[in-house]
C-alpha cells in the first residue's frame, strides 16, 4: 500500500482545504454507497474498512434484498474494502474529497467475485492473455429537470435559466440550448477536468433539458467505468447547485426521448494495431465474429443492460432505440452500429443500454461478446440490417427469464446471475404490488 500512501500525500498537498473524504462503494445498481471520514483517517484505509457483504445486494431504494442470500442468512458478515488506485479525487464541495472502494473476498487478497467491477477486471485479464486490448468510449445522456413536481406529482422539464420558460419542443443538437445552460455546463466541464474525468464535451440532445456527455476513447477500461460513477455524482451535485434535479432514468417523460448510455469498442494488439481491421484496411474476421457473438448474447443480456422497470419504456418504434438484435453501418436504429471509420479506428457502438445501466455490467456485456467471438464464424454474422432479426425482450419479466436461461461467458458466474436475478425480481415484485393513479383513473368506475 506504499503507492496508496504516496497518493494520499500528493492529494493532501494538492487539496489542503479538504477536511473529509467520501468512501464510495457501488452496489449491484452502481449506486454510490459508503461513509464519510475525516481526512486525518485517510491513511488508515491501507488496512481496509469493513462494510457488510449485503451492501452488494441493495435494491434501488437502498434496502437489503434478503432473497439474495447475503444478509441475515449469513449473519450480515463484514468484508474488508480497500481503496482503488488513482481514484482519490476532489468533489464539487471544496472541503470534501472522494475515493472508490472495492470489496475483497474471504481471503482478503482478491476482489470479491460478486462485484460487477471484478467481472470486468477478470475479463480484461483474460483478453490480455490473448494479446487483445480493448479501447472503449462512453456516451451518457441525462436530463436536467425541475425540482418541483407537477400538479399530479409528475416530473416536469426544467425551466430554461436564460429564457425563464419551461420548454416543451424538441430541438436536436440545439447549440443555443447549450448557451442557455452555459453556467451549469461550464462548472460541470471545469470540475470534470479537475477530477481528471476523460470527458470530451457536452451537447444538447433530443429533448428540452436533455444533454449528452461524451468520453474520449481509452485503453484504461476500468477507469472509463469508474469515470461514469464519478460523472453521475458530479452532474447531480452541480445540477442541485444550479437549482435543478438531474436524472439518469431511461425514460423520465413518456412524450420525450429516452436517455441511453452507449459504448464504442475497438480491439488492439500489443503493437496498437486495430484487430477489427485487416492489413489491407477491410473488416477482419474477428470483427464479424464479435458482432455475431454480441447479437447472439443480446437477448440474454437485456436484463443486465436494462435493470429497471422504467428501462423498458425506451423501447418504442421510431425512437432510435433497438428492438431487435441487428446491426448496421452508419445507422442509429440498430443494436450494434458501425460508425463511419477507417481501418485504424474501426469500432462497434453498442446502443441497447439506457442511462440507468450499471457501467461495469454494460462493459462486461460488451467484453463478453469479444471473449466469446472465437465460438462464432465470420460467416455466421447476418447481413447488415438483416430482417427478420431476433426480437429483444421489451418487458422486465421477459428479460429476467431470458437472463435466467441464457448461456453467457463463464466470467458471469451462476452465483452472480442468481444474485442479480434475486435483486431484480424483488424490485419487480415491489413495483407490481403498487396500485397506480392511472389504474384508478381508468378502472375506478369502469371495471
UniProtKB/TrEMBL annotation:
Signal peptide region: none
Family matches, as Gene3D superfamilies: Glutamine synthetase/guanido kinase, catalytic domain (3.30.590.10)
Transcription regulation as UniProt keyword: no
EC number: 6.3.1.11
Family annotation (SUPFAM superfamilies): Glutamine synthetase, N-terminal domain, Glutamine synthetase/guanido kinase
Required cofactor names: Mg(2+)
PROSITE patterns documented for this protein: GLNA_ATP, GS_CATALYTIC
Keyword presence, Membrane: no
Pfam families: Gln-synt_C (PF00120)
Keywords: Ligase, Magnesium
Alphabetical list of InterPro entries matching this protein: Gln_synt_N_sf, Gln_synth/guanido_kin_cat_dom, Gln_synth_cat_dom, Gln_synth_gly_rich_site
Domain GS catalytic: 116-447
GO molecular function, one term: glutamate-putrescine ligase activity
Recorded family membership: Belongs to the glutamine synthetase family.
PANTHER family: GAMMA-GLUTAMYLPUTRESCINE SYNTHETASE (PTHR43785), TYPE-1 GLUTAMINE SYNTHETASE 2 (PTHR43785:SF12)
Protein name: Gamma-glutamylputrescine synthetase PuuA
Amino acid at each position: 500500500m506504499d503507492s496508496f500512501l504516496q497518493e494520499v500525500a500528493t492529494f493532501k498537498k494538492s487539496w489542503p482545504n479538504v477536511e473529509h473524504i467520501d468512501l464510495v462503494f457501488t452496489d449491484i445498481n452502481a449506486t454510490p454507497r459508503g461513509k464519510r471520514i475525516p481526512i486525518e483517517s485517510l491513511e488508515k484505509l491501507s488496512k481496509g474498512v469493513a462494510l457488510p457483504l449485503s451492501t452488494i445486494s441493495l435494491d434501488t431504494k437502498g434496502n437489503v434484498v434478503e432473497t439474495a442470500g447475503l444478509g441475515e442468512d449469513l449473519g450480515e458478515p463484514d468484508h474488508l474494502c480497500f481503496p482503488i488506485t488513482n481514484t482519490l479525487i476532489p468533489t464539487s464541495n471544496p472541503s470534501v474529497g472522494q475515493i472508490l472502494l472495492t470489496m475483497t473476498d474471504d481471503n482478503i487478497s482478491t476482489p470479491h467475485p460478486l462485484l460487477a467491477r471484478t467481472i470486468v477486471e477478470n475479463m480484461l485479464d483474460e483478453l490480455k492473455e490473448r494479446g487483445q486490448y480493448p479501447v472503449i468510449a462512453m456516451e451518457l445522456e441525462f436530463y436536467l429537470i425541475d425540482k418541483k413536481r407537477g400538479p399530479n406529482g409528475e416530473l416536469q422539464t426544467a425551466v430554461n435559466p436564460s429564457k425563464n420558460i419551461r420548454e416543451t419542443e424538441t430541438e436536436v443538437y440545439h447549440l443555443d440550448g447549450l448557451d442557455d445552460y452555459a453556467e451549469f455546463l461550464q462548472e460541470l466541464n471545469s470540475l470534470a477536468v479537475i477530477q481528471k474525468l476523460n470527458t470530451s464535451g457536452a451537447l444538447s440532445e433530443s429533448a428540452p433539458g436533455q444533454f449528452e456527455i461524451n468520453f474520449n476513447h481509452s485503453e484504461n477500461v476500468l477507469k472509463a467505468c469508474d469515470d461514469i460513477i464519478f460523472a453521475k455524482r458530479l452532474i447531480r451535485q452541480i445540477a442541485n447547485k444550479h437549482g435543478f434535479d438531474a436524472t439518469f432514468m431511461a425514460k423520465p417523460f413518456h412524450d420525450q426521448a429516452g436517455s441511453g448510455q452507449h459504448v464504442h469498442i475497438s480491439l488492439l494488439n500489443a503493437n496498437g494495431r486495430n484487430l477489427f481491421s485487416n492489413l489491407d484496411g477491410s473488416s477482419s474476421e474477428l470483427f464479424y465474429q464479435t458482432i455475431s457473438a454480441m447479437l447472439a448474447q443480446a437477448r440474454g443480456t437485456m436484463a443486465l443492460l436494462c435493470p429497471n422497470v422504467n428501462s423498458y419504456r425506451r423501447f418504442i418504434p421510431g425512437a432510435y432505440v433497438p428492438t431487435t438484435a441487428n446491426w448496421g453501418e452508419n445507422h442509429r436504429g440498430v443494436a450494434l452500429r458501425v460508425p463511419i471509420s477507417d481501418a485504424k479506428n474501426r469500432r462497434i457502438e453498442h446502443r441497447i443500454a439506457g442511462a440507468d445501466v450499471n457501467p461495469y455490467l454494460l462493459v462486461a456485456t460488451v467484453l463478453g461478446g469479444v471473449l466469446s467471438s472465437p465460438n462464432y464464424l465470420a460467416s455466421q454474422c447476418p447481413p447488415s440490417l438483416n430482417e427478420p432479426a431476433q426480437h429483444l425482450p421489451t418487458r422486465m419479466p421477459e428479460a429476467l427469464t431470458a437472463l435466467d436461461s441464457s448461456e453467457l461467458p463463464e466470467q458471469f458466474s451462476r452465483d452472480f446471475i442468481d444474485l442479480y436475478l434475486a435483486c431484480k425480481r424483488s424490485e419487480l415484485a415491489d413495483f407490481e404490488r403498487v396500485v397506480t393513479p392511472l389504474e384508478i383513473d381508468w378502472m375506478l368506475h369502469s371495471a
